Amino acid sequence: MKKKSNFFFSEEEKETLKRDIIGSAESVKSRERNAKIKKVFGYAAVACVIGIIATIFYSRIPEKTGSDIERFVQESSEGVNFKSDQVTILLEENQINLSEDSTEVAYSANGDQLTLGNGKSIQQNVNSKNKSVFNTIIVPYGKRGKLTLSDGTQVWLNSGSRLVYPLVFSEDKREVYLQGEAIFDVAHNKEKAFNVLSDNQEISVLGTVFNVSVYPGDDEQQTVLKEGSVVVTYKEEKKQLQMVPGDFSEYNIKSKKITTRKVDPDVYFSWRNGELTLNRTDLSSIIKKLSRYYNVEILIKNEDLQNETFSGKLDLKETLGDVLNTIKNTSEFQYEYKNNDTLVINR
């Protein structure tokens, strides 16, 4: 009988060996999977750390958008009160409330002296911490104001308007920011353009006379040129429009549509003299202007009446009641005060 070879296994031994081999293979696969997982998590951890470092780094870089005056406007827009009973000038450290006899103000050529209409003078530092110093004039509803800037430019401000401007302009540009409506008689300087900035457009001139209306509550923003030449840049549309005397341009914020036509500029400048000239103007637009001019909330309850148009001239030096009675001469409507502060117009 031959001796059993060491290379032969019983069935039980074969099963045990098979289990050991399979177990060993699975252990190897498991270690490989764990290594891959650790590798992936390692990459993720590195990416996460890099992301955190980048976030911290970039968060420490201040966001810089726009010019100095635009950043100043962004920082100082809160708390503007158009329902005050006085024209106000916000200085760097305090504010001045102007009485009725001092609403015309002027700056000296070097910007360090502000002279009020009553003759009172106020001294200011032109530069603060090597930065330009800006003042803000706020003309509330029911008031008007006039301002002469340090370069000699004259600005007439209508009710519910705000103008931000430097005490003295920089060497390379003249920039102001307008909210509301104003007439500009810009001092000519062929070396340095004068720019009127607003939220949706920018007007650039060398020396000219124009009216611009950019009230936040209006869908339309309007520019009318009386003298000289201006270039209007519509920021969102990235379009420019060159205007000549007698041109009217309008930008509709909702539809993004730009329209132009020829007009009589005096119609749009008449408010400076206490008049409102109408040329087939709808009552809704008239009432909006009267509401600001007299600082009274006015509502039109009849839709057909809102769209009715009028032509002629209104004397804004009269009372609101007298002005409404003048309009009533060509139309039938009634008006009355509700809650002592709101005037309601209806058929």
Task: Provide structural commentary.
With 347 residues, this protein is of the alpha+beta class. It has three domains: 17-61; 68-267, Jelly Rolls (Sandwich); 274-346, Phage tail protein beta-alpha-beta fold (3-Layer(bab) Sandwich). It has six helices and 25 strands. It has helices at 11-59, 68-76, 266-269, 283-294, 303-307, 320-328, and strands at residues 87-90, 95-98, 104-107, 113-115, 121-123, 127-128, 131-132, 134-139, 145-148, 154-157, 161-166, 174-185, 194-197, 201-205, 209-214, 220-227, 230-234, 239-243, 247-252, 258-262, 275-282, 297-300, 309-315, 334-338, 342-346. It has an 18-stranded mixed sheet that branches. Strands 22-25-24 form a three-stranded mixed sheet. A two-stranded antiparallel sheet has the order 6-7. The N and C termini lie far apart (131 Å). The model is unreliable at 1-9 and 36-64 (pLDDT under 50).
In a nutshell, what does this entry contain?
GO terms for molecular function: sigma factor antagonist activity. This protein has 347 residues and is of the alpha+beta class.
- Please give the CATH architecture of the largest domain: Sandwich
Mean pLDDT: 84
Shape: globular
The number of distinct structural domains comes to: 3
Q: In terms of per-residue confidence, which ranges show pLDDT below 50 for 5 or more consecutive residues? A: 1-9, 36-64
Largest sheet: 18 strands, mixed
Total helical segments: 6
Considering DSSP H and I runs of 4 or more, what fraction of the residues is helical? Answer: 25-40%
CATH topology term of the largest domain? Jelly Rolls
Q: What value does the Rg take, in angstroms?
A: 35 Å
CATH class label of the largest domain: Mainly Beta
Total count of strands:
25
Task: Report the structural category.
Answer: alpha+beta
Percent strand equals 35-45%
Query: What separation lies between the terminal Cα atoms?
Result: 131 Å
